[in-house]
Amino acid sequence: MFFNHWSKIPKNYWRWKDFPPYELASKGNGSLLVNEDALDLLQTARIRTNKPFFINSAYRDEHHNAMIGGAPRSYHLEGRAFDISLRNHDKEKLIRILEQVGFTGLGVNYQSFVHADNGRKRRW
Description:
Radius of gyration: 14 Å
CATH topology: Muramoyl-pentapeptide Carboxypeptidase, domain 2
Number of helices: 4
Structural class: alpha+beta
Oligomer: single chain
């Protein structure tokens, strides 16, 4: 479901208790495309780690994605991708949990975050 701004999301719709909508909205215009399957995976991973997740990037509107040099067909544009900070996390343990809960796309070669999405199976 798409919302022109995260503040327009009805409170009774939002079920991901550890991730407020503003944290997942586009840093460009505040819009948010909700991919429920991806958010369910994210919430499950958060519960399994028993530690807060700091999300560097989640949904991106097209303009913001282009401005930061994101891939033109990025899963961030579909609300299916999250860049999760490694702050307070062991990288290998976090990757293992993300795989266990069902994330299929994992960007693991970054110093400060792990990219996780529920797109096609791949790792980089």
